[in-house]
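Homework help board

Subject: predicted structure for assignment chain

Our instructor gave us this sequence and asked us to write out the predicted structure in token form, then describe one feature. I got the tokens but I'm not sure how to describe them. Can anyone check?
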Amino acid sequence: MPTYEYACEKCGRFEVFQRITADPLAQCPTCGGNVQRLVSKNVSIVFKGSGFYITDTRAAESSAKSSSDDKAS
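My token output:
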């Protein structure tokens, strides 16, 4: 489940785990004040699976060396 960040008029900021399909909160669960959902900056992308290769994360130097080695063969 994603984590959403809210700003309460009285309490300040807090985070809530909610389903994507859930409606945004209208009241703070702590004090009952009005809240507004914020655009979060805590996006974590994790790539998993067989579609990614070790060569995708190599430094520019090593990829330049390997391409010159391939030409020599």
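Reply (TA_rk): Your tokens look well-formed. For the description, you could write something like this. Residues 3-41+48-72 form one domain. That's the kind of observation they're looking for.
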